[in-house]
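Subject: design request, 310 residues
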């Protein structure tokens, strides 16, 4: 469908857009979707409303009932659909319409129908993402892949799971990088960038390991060939698959890097670099420049903050 200006699109939505959009058959969501679904391919796909962080719940989702969409999308935030009435519900996308945003980036109007009630909703993407939703198939696939499995988080600590009547404020749960944890359950989380929570057992304590299962509903600029959950965990013991002595892993846990480390070991210790240069052979972390040769850290240099980029 051709790109439309936002104002013209809002007028059309009041006249005809939603009337025709509701005719998509429910059977369209039964087929297994591709792993990564671009916005243009959302029609017929089912999404689930995420929980929202506590500070955002009163504002509701930035999605509007069809009859209020024109005013809502033009800035009336009071018309957002309320959090308590929609959290956990599923919608089926019935139509996608692209338009030219002010930043010259293509954005999309997303027309949806609530599976439980048939209510018609409208949302607008920002940077190609519609906040507050997760692809329902991602939840199902994450449960199938991870539930009951031992995984190995790439974090030094995880957020503890709130347990009513037992703890008021979730405490941090320490875990060694690449240490084993068991997945006890899989929930819809509360952040669109990491919309799925793996509930894991860390030495008898329950904690949250947030992941994105696929690149669906993520800004296209962030997509890579590897699934995004690999940013959060290993499926195999990295002390075996990546190798390295106990001393090396102690250094990774302490946040140290040294010559001879692989790129993945450096990334575990220091996280993602602020930028990469020279075909990924140079990584920059603040004032530190790491030079790799054949994927192995060859040298570490200190650079000036005012030094021009390569």
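Subject: RE: design request

Done. Sequence follows.
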């Amino acid at each position: 469908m051709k790109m439309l200006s936002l104002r013209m699109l809002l007028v059309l939505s009041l006249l005809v857009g939603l009337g025709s959009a509701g005719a998509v058959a429910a059977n369209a969501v039964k087929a297994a979707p591709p792993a990564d679904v671009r916005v243009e391919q959302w029609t017929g796909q089912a999404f689930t409303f995420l929980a929202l962080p506590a500070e955002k719940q009163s504002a509701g989702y930035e999605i509007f009932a069809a009859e209020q969409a024109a005013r809502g999308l033009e800035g009336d935030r009071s018309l957002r659909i309320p959090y308590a009435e929609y959290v956990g519900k599923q919608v089926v996308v019935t139509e996608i319409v692209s338009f030219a945003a002010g930043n010259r980036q293509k954005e999309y109007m997303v027309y949806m129908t609530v599976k439980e009630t048939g209510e018609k909703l409208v949302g607008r993407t920002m940077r190609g993402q519609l906040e507050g939703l997760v692809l329902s198939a991602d939840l199902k696939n994450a449960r199938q892949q991870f539930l009951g499995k031992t995984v190995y988080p790439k974090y030094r600590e995880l957020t503890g799971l709130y347990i009513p009547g037992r703890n008021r404020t979730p405490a941090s749960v320490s875990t060694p990088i690449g240490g084993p944890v068991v997945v006890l359950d899989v929930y819809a989380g509360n952040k669109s960038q990491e919309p799925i929570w793996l509930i894991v057992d860390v030495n008898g304590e329950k904690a949250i390991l947030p992941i994105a299962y696929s690149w669906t509903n993520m800004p296209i600029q962030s997509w890579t060939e590897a699934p995004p959950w690999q940013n959060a965990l290993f499926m195999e013991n990295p002390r075996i698959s990546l190798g390295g002595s106990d001393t090396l892993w102690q250094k990774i846990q302490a946040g140290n890097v040294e010559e001879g480390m692989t790129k993945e070991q450096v990334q575990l210790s220091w996280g993602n670099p602020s930028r990469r240069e020279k075909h990924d052979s140079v990584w920059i972390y603040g004032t530190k420049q790491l030079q790799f040769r054949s994927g192995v850290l060859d040298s570490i240099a200190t650079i000036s903050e005012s030094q021009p980029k390569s």
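The helical segments are 6-21, 69-73, 83-86, 136-146, 238-241, 246-254, 263-270.
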